[in-house]
UniProtKB/TrEMBL annotation, chains A, B, C, D:
<dbReference type="InterPro" id="IPR002125">
    <property type="entry name" value="CMP_dCMP_dom"/>
</dbReference>
<dbReference type="InterPro" id="IPR016193">
    <property type="entry name" value="Cytidine_deaminase-like"/>
</dbReference>
<feature type="domain" description="CMP/dCMP-type deaminase">
    <location>
        <begin position="6"/>
        <end position="143"/>
    </location>
</feature>
<comment type="similarity">
    <text>Belongs to the cytidine and deoxycytidylate deaminase family.</text>
</comment>
<dbReference type="GO" id="GO:0008270">
    <property type="term" value="F:zinc ion binding"/>
</dbReference>
<keyword id="KW-0479">Metal-binding</keyword>
<feature type="active site" description="Proton donor">
    <location>
        <position position="60"/>
    </location>
</feature>
<dbReference type="GO" id="GO:0072527">
    <property type="term" value="P:pyrimidine-containing compound metabolic process"/>
</dbReference>
<dbReference type="InterPro" id="IPR006262">
    <property type="entry name" value="Cyt_deam_tetra"/>
</dbReference>
<feature type="binding site">
    <location>
        <position position="94"/>
    </location>
    <ligand>
        <name>Zn(2+)</name>
    </ligand>
</feature>
<dbReference type="GO" id="GO:0005829">
    <property type="term" value="C:cytosol"/>
</dbReference>
<keyword id="KW-0378">Hydrolase</keyword>
<feature type="binding site">
    <location>
        <position position="91"/>
    </location>
    <ligand>
        <name>Zn(2+)</name>
    </ligand>
</feature>
<protein>
    <recommendedName>
        <fullName>Cytidine deaminase</fullName>
        <ecNumber>3.5.4.5</ecNumber>
    </recommendedName>
</protein>
<dbReference type="GO" id="GO:0042802">
    <property type="term" value="F:identical protein binding"/>
</dbReference>
<dbReference type="InterPro" id="IPR016192">
    <property type="entry name" value="APOBEC/CMP_deaminase_Zn-bd"/>
</dbReference>
<comment type="function">
    <text>This enzyme scavenges exogenous and endogenous cytidine and 2'-deoxycytidine for UMP synthesis.</text>
</comment>
Length: 151, 151, 151, 151
C-alpha cells in the first residue's frame, strides 16, 4: 500500500480542488478530501452541511460514499485539507467511516492550507503523514459485530 | 419544476441501477436513489452502512453529496427504490438533507421493487408520487437559523 | 392519548426550563424539549452540539435517549421550544427518532419563545399543535425492515 | 483526574447495569456506559438504535447528553461494556463526542463482558485502561474552529 510521489502530489492537488465545492454556510469552514483507489482513480469530496447540524456530512465521508456507490471499495490513500494553515485531522465520525473500507496501515495525508510541495516534515507548509491505525487505535470495526456473545 | 415522461423512466431505471452498489451488510436492506439535476444530469446513490450503525449514510444523502460536491446544487426530482415490493419513503434524516437543497414542491418518486412502467396509480407496481413538502410539513430549514431571537 | 390542561402547562414549562441547559456554542441556537411518559413522568432534553457538526444531538433526541435508557419507552406528548418567537418544528432526524417509540397520533407541541398561556390558536404566542403523523407522513419505521423482500 | 478503587468498581457495575436498558433490535448488540462526573455522580447510558440506522445513538453519547442536559459538564472517567467477552472500544463518533467535554487524559475503561474484579491486566476478564487521547490522537476539537483561516 504505497503511492508514488506523483500520485501523492496529484492527491494533494485534488484535495485542494475538492475544497472549492464545500457547502459550509454554518461553520464557514471548508474541507476538501481526495481518495486514491487501488486502481488509481482519484475521488474528491467536500463537506456538505445541514441546517440541522447533525445532518452534516464531512468531506472524507462524501468522498467515500461517492466511491463506494460507484463500485469502488478499495483504497490506497486519502488526503484532507481545510481552511486553516495547520494540518487538520478527520473527525471521529470520519475515522470510523474510513475504517469500514480501509486497512489500518492506509496513509492519511493531513495537508495544511499553506501547503508547500518542498516543505520538509515538521516545517511550515509540510504534510503530516499518519495512518488510519494511528488515528483510530483499538478500533471498533465490522468484525466485532460477528464475535461470539454472552454474559 | 416538471420532468418529461422520458426523464421519469430514466430516473426510475437509474434508481434501480444505483441499488446494485448498496453496501448494506448489517440491514441486508438495499436502497437506490437517483437525482435529476435542473440541467438534466442524473446522479445515483446507494445506502452505505457502517459497523457503528449511527455512521450509516442512506442512498438519498449519498446522491446529494455526490452532486453537491461536484458543483450541482439544484434539482428537479429524486426517485428512490428498495428491496421491498411496496414503495418505501425516505427516512427523516434524508428528508431534512433534501430540504437543504430542494424546493418544497420538488417531486419525490417512491418506486416499488416490483415496479411496472404500465401500472396505474394505486395499482400493484405503481409509483407513489409525493413532494418534499408533503413528506416534511412544517419543516425546519436554513432560513430558520437566520430568524431574530430573544426570550 | 390525551393530556390534561395541567400536564400541558407543566410540559411547556419543562421545555423552557430544559432549554437553559443547551450546549450550542456553534449555532448559538438553544432548543429545549420535554417528553411526557404514559406513566406521567416529564423528561427534559436540550440540544448538545459538537465541533464536528455531524455529531450534534438535538433536544428531542436527548430527551428520548434519557427516557429510554432509564427504561421509559411509551410517551403521551412532547413539547419543543427554541430561541425564536415563532414555533419551530423538529428536524427530520428527530422526527424519525420519535417515530421509533411513539404512535403517529402522539401530540407534538411547537411552542414559540414568546409563549403566552392565554393566547388562542394562531395568535402571537400561541402553541402550534401537531401530531407525529402530521410531521412525518408516509413514514419509514421499524416495521418496514420486517417486510418480505425480493426483486 | 484519578478515581478511587471504590469509584472504579461502582462505575464498572453501573456500566453493566446500564446495558440492561439497551434498545438494540437491529444489531442485537447491547452496550452500556457509565460516566463519572467530577462531583462524584454516576450517569448511565445505553445504545438506542433506530430503524434508519443512521439515527442510532450509542451508549457513550446517551450518557453524555443525559449529563450535559442536566447541567453536568465535567467528567473524571467513563466505563463501557458490551455483550462480547473481549473489551470493546467506543466508535469514532463517540470518541469525538467525548472529546467535546473531556480532557485528553480522561480514563476510559473498556470492560469485557466476562469481567472479573480480581483479574490482572491482560488476563481474561481484565479491564483495558485507556485514555481519550490514546483513542483519538491528533484529534479535532472545539478549539480548531477558532483558528485563523486563509489560504
Ligand atoms: Zn468528519
Ligand atoms: Zn435516509
Ligand atoms: Zn432534531
Ligand atoms: Zn459510538
Amino acid at each position: 500500500m504505497s503511492i508514488t510521489p506523483e500520485q501523492r502530489e496529484q492527491l494533494i492537488a485534488a484535495a485542494f480542488s475538492a475544497r472549492d465545492a464545500a457547502y459550509s454556510p454554518y461553520s464557514k469552514f471548508r474541507v476538501g478530501a481526495a481518495l486514491l483507489s487501488t486502481d488509481g482513480k482519484i475521488i474528491k469530496g467536500a463537506n456538505i452541511e445541514n441546517a440541522s447540524y447533525g445532518g452534516t456530512i464531512c468531506a472524507e465521508r462524501t468522498a467515500l460514499v461517492k466511491a463506494v456507490s460507484d463500485g469502488t471499495k478499495t483504497f490506497s490513500a486519502i488526503a484532507v485539507v481545510s481552511d486553516v494553515a495547520s494540518a487538520i485531522s478527520p473527525c471521529g465520525i470520519c475515522r470510523q467511516f474510513i475504517r469500514e473500507f480501509c486497512k489500518l496501515e492506509m496513509p492519511i495525508l493531513l495537508v495544511p492550507a499553506d501547503y508547500s510541495a518542498t516543505a520538509k516534515t515538521g516545517e511550515k507548509g509540510s504534510v503530516l503523514d499518519v495512518t488510519l491505525g494511528e488515528l483510530l487505535p483499538h478500533s471498533f470495526g465490522p468484525e466485532h459485530l460477528e464475535m461470539p456473545r454472552g454474559e
